[in-house]
Amino acid sequence: MSRFRNEVDFRNQEFEFLINGKECIAKADYTLESKGETSSWDYPGDCETTIENLDVYDAMTYSDDLDEWIEISVTNEIEQIVFEEIEKHHKL
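Given the sequence above, the corresponding structure tokens read:
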């Protein structure tokens, strides 16, 4: 069996989500890395895909009072939400 490694970069991806009932958006750059063993007729192979190099930026929330988007700090909570959205999107 031979081993393989594959990386796909995603840049400037936008994610929409809610925090405490407020609409938010953030952008992220990340890499999906797949590595494992190739399959054959006798062996089904094995592959694991992980999210690497996650960089979340340009987080904003919508202000009903001002009727516009307001920039907010990227927190651990926002990074975790974006991470989970990436997992859902790519079915990891």
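Residues 34 and 49 are 4 Å apart (CA to CA). Try to locate this feature in the token string yourself.
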